[in-house]
Amino acid sequence: MPIWFMRQAGRYLPEFREIRKNNLDFIKLCLNSNLVKEITLQPLKRFHLDAAIIFSDILMIPYGLGQEVVFKKGIGPMLGILNPDNILNTNPEDFVKKLFPVYEGIKKVKSELKNKNLIGFVGAPWTLLLYMLNRESPKNNFDFNKINKDKVLVKKLLIKIEEIICLHIDKQIEAGADTIQIFDSWAGLLPVKELPIYCYIPILKIVEHVKSKNVPVICFPKGIGDNYIDFCNTVKPDCISIDYDVDPLWIKEKVNGIPVQGGLDPKILLEEKEVIKKNIEKYLNIFKNYPYIFNLGHGVLPETKPETVEYMIKIVREKK
Ligand code: CP3
Questions:
Q1: Crossing angle, helix 151-175 and helix 100-112, to 10 degrees?
Q2: Is-contact 189 130, C-beta < 8 A?
Q3: How far is CA 233 from CA 63, 240, 257, in A?
Q4: Which of 51, 62, 274, 309 could in theory staple to 67 by disulfide, Cβ–Cβ 3.0 to 4.6 A?
Q5: In angstroms, what is the span from residue 303 Cα to ligand 1's centroid?
Q6: Cα dihedral angle (286, 269, 298, 1), rounded to 10 degrees?
Q7: Is 239 helix (H, G, I), strand (E, B) or coil?
Q8: Residue nearest to atom 24 of ligand 1 (CA)
Q9: What's the pLDDT at 114?
């Protein structure tokens, strides 16, 4: 059973915090190809993992489109005022030039990774549109009708974002990414009747683009509950990444054989060992004879002890 974790490189690792301490500008850090390589490889040096996920961020796309992005400690990402003309007129060559160090970082990681999968990723159109228009995490403040007020602008932005996502994917593949994961972290905020327009159809276009390059694609439409099945029937990803609210037994029975990834609540890793073991084994037993990638239902939390990650991997590896 393959194993990797979302946010496997990040603040729960002291060696990441050490680098971060001296690199307070997060976007600049994502544009330092030597540090991108080093951070991406940090979890692979410590743990027996099957894949590396490139150290970057979904908000590198708004940055590449000319919108200011800063990460504020304790608040999260803050985006600058959106200038629609600037965004819509960004030409692809300028975008690629701005993000060039990201692709250089992928090349550098690739040259050191032997027999391991390198995962590239993008934010889904809806999640990116949401950050670009909301300008901060919707955790702090969100109103769908406000986002959707200027429907003509929303439509134009979505088309531009889809085009740039495909370009960003192409460049990651050219640089050495073996698999692409699409994060629709805020799909769960969409009113159900809007899911086809904002989530399924835009992601379907991107999935078809990735498939046309013969590269496998994993989708993570976080928070859509029962609609995971509609999502899979429409989008047909190579693998579906489930969040911690999805019943693993239910998805296995309903999803028509599509490989499944993840599910374990990252908060479980803050519990005692016995609780952790019991919860891991639940997923291992359910997906025993099913194509399954071991992962979490969202990213590793910063409070997680590296020893706990080690323990989790041991349990998964030892299970027959
Ligand atoms: O998974 C990995 O190890 C690869 C790296 C990765 C990062 N961000 C690094 C990061 C990936 C895949 C992402 C994706 C991402 N970024 C998503 C989708 C996945 C998800 O979590 O839902 C989203 C929504 C973002 C936007 C983002 N980036 C937020 C909301 C934040 C701040 C919140 C937080 O956790 O601090 C980030 C910052 C960020 N991206 C960090 C890392 C390691 C923490 C930066 C720090 O050191 O302060």
A1: 30
A2: yes
A3: 33, 11, 11
A4: 62
A5: 15
A6: -40
A7: strand
A8: 185
A9: 84
Per-residue pLDDT at 74: 85
Question: Sign of the C-alpha dihedral, residues 186, 188, 194, 198?
Answer: positive
Judge if pTM exceeds 0.90.
Answer: yes
Q: Is the CB of 5 under 6 A from ligand 1?
A: no
Question: Which atom of ligand 1 is least distant from the CA of 123?
Answer: 18
CA nearest ligand 1 atom 31, residue: 76
Whether the per-residue pLDDT at 73 is higher than 90: the answer is: no
Closest ligand 1 atom to residue 9 Cα is 3
* Residue of 4, 7, 121 to test ligand 1 pocket, by largest number of atoms within 8 Å of CB: 7
Residue 320 pLDDT greater than 80, yes or no = no
The predicted-structure confidence for 240-287, as pLDDT tens digits, reads as follows: 999 999 999 999 999 999 999 999 999 999 999 999 999 999 999 999
Within 8 A by CB and 6+ apart from 96, the residues are 103, 167, 171
pLDDT tens sequence across 177-226: 999 999 999 999 999 999 999 999 999 999 999 999 999 999 999 999 99
Whether 140 has a pLDDT exceeding 90, the answer reads no
Residue nearest to atom 1 of ligand 1 (CA): 7
Q: Is the CB of 17 under 6 A from ligand 1?
A: no
Q: Which of 19, 21, 53, 58 to mutate to test the pocket of ligand 1 (most atoms within 8 A of CB)?
A: 58
The Cα–Cα gap between 87 and 212 comes to 27
Alpha helical stretches, state H, the chain: 14-21, 26-30, 33-46, 60-64, 84-89, 92-98, 100-112, 125-134, 144-147, 151-175, 195, 201-212, 228-235, 248-254, 273-286, 306-318
Residues 63/87, Cβ–Cβ less than 8 Å: no
Handedness of CA 236, 241, 245, 249 (dihedral sign): positive
